[in-house]
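Morning, I've got a small favour to ask if you have a moment. I owe you a coffee for this, so here goes:
>
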Amino acid sequence: MLDGAASDRTLLEGGLARPRGGIAPRALRSAGGVLVGVLAVLALAAPWLAPHDPTRQLDPAAARYRPPGTVLAVVELADGRTLLADRAARTAEGLRVERLGRTEVLPAEGVANLTPEGVADRRLFLLGTDGYGRDLLSRILHGARISLGVALLSVALALTVGLLVGSLAGAGPRLLDGVLMRGVDALLAFPWLFLVLALTALFRPSTTLVILVLGATSWMGLSRLVRAEILSLKEREFILAARGLGLHPARILLRHLLPNSLNPVVVQATLTVGNVILTESALSFLGMGVQPPTASWGNIVADGRDVLTTAWWVSTFPGLMIVLAVLAFNLLGDRLRDVLDPRTIVR
C-alpha cells in the first residue's frame, strides 16, 4: 500500500493525474468565487445600496462633472424646483447660496426646506457625477444588474443551444453529426464581431436584443466541446453496459452521457461570461447595446469618453468594474477546472 505522497508521485509519473495549476496562484484563483459573489450581491441589492436614483437629474447645470467626494447642499424651492449649491447659509434676507460661480440671495418665503442655519439637506456624490449631474455610484450599481444580467442570460441561452446541438451531434447518427458540425464550422468561420454588429444594426437596439444576439453567437464553441466529450464517453464500459441492458438511446444520453460531460462545459461557460461582459460593454459603448437612460457599464464608459482628461472618473470607475468582473469570472473558471477535473491533485 502506497502512502499519500508516494501515491501522488506514482499517479503523476503514470500520467493518470496532473497537478493543479494555472497562471494564477491557487489563493488568487480561489478568490474568484468570492469576487463573483460580491458582484452578485451588489447587483441584486442595487436598489437598496444605491444612494440616489440613477436616472434623476436634480440640477444638471450645477451638478455636472463633479469630482468624487463632492457634497452639495439641496435647496428645495417653493415652486417645486430643486437647486444644488456649493454653500448655503441663512441670512436676514433669506438664504444665501453659492452655485455656478455666483452668489445669490433667495427670499425666505421662496425656500421650502429653510432651517435656522440654512438648509439641512446634503447630497454626497461618493464617486462623482456624469455630464447630466447623475450620481455615478448609483449608476454603476444599477449598471451591474444590467451588465451581469445580460451576460448570465446570454451564456444560459448559449449553453442551452450548445448542449442541444452538441449532444445531437455526438450521440446521433453520423449524417446528423456531419450536417450539424459543418454548420457550426461555417458559423465559426464567419467574422464573429461583424456578425454581432450586423445583427444589432438590423434591429432596434434593446436589452432583450443584446441578450439574444450574444447568446446566438456564443454557443458554437460550447457545442463542439459537448460533442467531443460525448464522443469520448460513448465507448466507455458503463455506456456499453447500458446499451447491453437495452436502455433507450435517449435515456443513455440524458442519464449518462450528458451528466458526465458537463464538467468541462461548466468551466467553459464560466469563462464565456467574462467574454460576453466585454462584448456587451463594447456594444453599449458604440451605442448598439443597452440604450440610455438605462445604465450599463458600457454606456457609462461611453458617457465619459469625451472628457477623459477633465472628468476621468466618469469612465474610470465603470471601466474598473468591467475589469474586475471579467477577472473574477476567469478566476472562477480556473478554479472550477481544478475542482471538477478528476485528474487534478493538490500540489
